Backbone:
């Protein structure tokens, strides 16, 4: 029988990475990115094993299932843009948001759990590449620490653009998961929106656009997962040579 990972043993402190996707049902690339993350984390890859031993990943791959089922572009069955209702979600009108928010708050209030990352995956209709949105903080040191993960991801993923990554407190985005949870959680938690283009990415140093494919979206997801190895400096724990991330068919 497999022994429990150190981070899952009774009484162990858990570092949690919480990932959500598809709050906007028309943004189908977000599902492929999320699938890439999931497939990698449950694989036999030596990096995945180290990540499972040291981190707890909570993933809600589809926050708007009724909108997806109906073929809506942005709204739920009730006609709500769910990513504007994080501040006070209704269990009746926004049930998925209400459930996920309660789970996040329960983890935040649990002294044995450190909720260290929240990443909400979206797709962007006008910009190219993958990039992130983060929050603005008065604390300069916290602001600088928030930039570390996207910088590391930029080194791992050729289609991720740090120059397109931005940090804002736009009032229109106040009800988003990234903005609301960024204000709720403490200064050891980092909240991001991960955006990926609907259509293509530019490779560094070239002027040619490369069309995205399902595989390329999933590769970005795998690279997001790998970046946690760099962020937590766990590279020395990986057994054997670092093989490329496995292809997902």
Residues:
């Amino acid at each position: 029988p497999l022994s429990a990972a150190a981070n899952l043993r009774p009484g162990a402190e858990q570092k949690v990475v919480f990932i959500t996707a598809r709050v906007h049902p028309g943004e189908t690339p977000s599902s492929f990115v999320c699938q890439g993350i999931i497939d990698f984390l449950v694989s036999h890859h030596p990096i995945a094993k180290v990540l499972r031993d040291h981190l707890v990943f909570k993933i809600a791959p589809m926050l708007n299932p009724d909108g997806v089922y109906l073929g809506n572009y942005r709204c739920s069955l009730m006609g709500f843009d769910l990513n504007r209702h994080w501040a006070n979600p209704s269990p009746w009108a926004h049930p998925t948001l209400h459930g996920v928010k309660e789970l996040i708050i329960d983890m935040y209030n649990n002294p044995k759990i450190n909720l260290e990352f929240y990443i909400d995956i979206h797709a962007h209709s006008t910009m190219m590449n993958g990039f992130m949105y983060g929050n603005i903080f008065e604390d300069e040191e916290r602001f600088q620490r928030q930039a570390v993960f996207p910088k590391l991801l930029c080194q791992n993923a050729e289609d991720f653009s740090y120059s397109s990554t931005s940090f804002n407190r736009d009032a229109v985005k106040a009800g988003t998961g990234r903005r609301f949870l960024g204000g709720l959680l403490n200064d050891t938690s980092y909240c991001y929106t991960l955006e990926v283009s609907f259509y293509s990415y530019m490779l560094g140093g070239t002027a040619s656009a490369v069309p995205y494919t399902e595989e390329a979206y999933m590769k970005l997801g795998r690279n997001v997962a790998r970046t946690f190895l760099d962020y937590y400096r766990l590279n020395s724990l990986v057994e054997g040579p670092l093989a490329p991330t496995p292809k997902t068919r």
